[in-house]
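Much of the work behind modern protein science is quiet bookkeeping, done one molecule at a time. The protein below has been through that process, and both of its lines are reproduced in full.


***
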Amino acid sequence: MIPDMHACYAQKGLVGSCIDVIPVSAAQGLQLAEFAVFGVVAVLLLAGTAWTLRRQH
């Protein structure tokens, strides 16, 4: 970042904000990990729903 821009951000009170950047090399692994986590949660919710419905009838 250009030092003058950093000084401008500091004057405007924007220094506290930040942006996380994921490198391209790590993006696919992160996407697979998120898919796995959400997939497991979806399967658990589906199993819980099926168990609840079977128990009621």
About this structure: The CA atoms of residues 40 and 46 lie 10 Å apart. The chain has two helices and no strands. The first helix runs from residue 3 to 12. The mean pLDDT is 85.
